[in-house]
Each structure stands twice: as structure tokens, then as C-alpha cells.
Amino acid sequence: MPSQGSDSRGLEAHQGETLELAAADVTALVAYARACLPEEACGLLAGIDGVVARTHLLTNVERSPSTYTIDPREHFEALRQAEREGIELLGCWHSHTHTEAYPSPTDVAQALYPEWVYVVVSLRDPEPAVRGYRIVAGKVCAVTLVIG
User: Fold this and answer.
1) For residue range 55-69, what is the model confidence (pLDDT) as tens digits?
2) Pairing between strand 42-48 and 51-58?
């Protein structure tokens, strides 16, 4: 199971906020991130009330080892699917191929949705790390991931 503890910055969780993910979903994110190497992988998380019901493994149109952009058509389809299912987009996820599971300055600058949780899957170490963050006005706060 990937590590999900606090990062090296010792951030406090965002006001006790949690995001719940099934262990199978975390395993799928890590597997997809590995399959996309050497490029970053990315996708969306949909659910309700902080519980992820659907993970979307999407295309990184940048095809880059250090940045990502979710394919806009796939993003729109994930949004439409969530609406049909009566859930909402809770956040996005992406991988870091050689750095820790913490938002990069580029990630922070591109974080447009303050209500989203941004999940980072790091493949830097042999044991992947998966962590969540809220990014609001350039400030990064940890969100506790509950994996079950």
C-alpha cells in the first residue's frame, strides 16, 4: 500500500478535512502512473461529501515528465458523467515522476479550483506516496486521505 502520511513539510491537515478513497482506486492510480512513465499521469476524482465514487484515469496532453494538462474533452466527459450519476468532481490527481508527493510551484500556480482536493502520486521512491492537498490562493494545506 502506498504511503499516505504527512509530507516532509509537516503540514497540518486542512481543518480536519478528509478525502476517502477505496484502496482499489489508489492501487489503480499508482498502476496508471507507472504505466505512463516517463510522463506524468493525471485524472479526476468524482464523488460526494468527500467520498470518491469514481476515479478517472485521463490523458496528459502535455506528454511531459514534469507537467500535466488533462485532456479538455475527457475532462468535460468526466463532468457530464458525474452529473448523470448525481455526484460532482471533488478534485484531480496527477503523478510526480521524480519528486515528492507535494504540489510543485507549477501545480500551485495552475490550481484553479479552491474547492477541489489535489492528489499527488509520487513515484520518486520504490514505495509510492499518495497525498492530498487543498490549494487556495497559492497556499497549500494537507488533506488527510482515508484509504479503505
Assistant:
1) 999 999 999 999 999
2) antiparallel
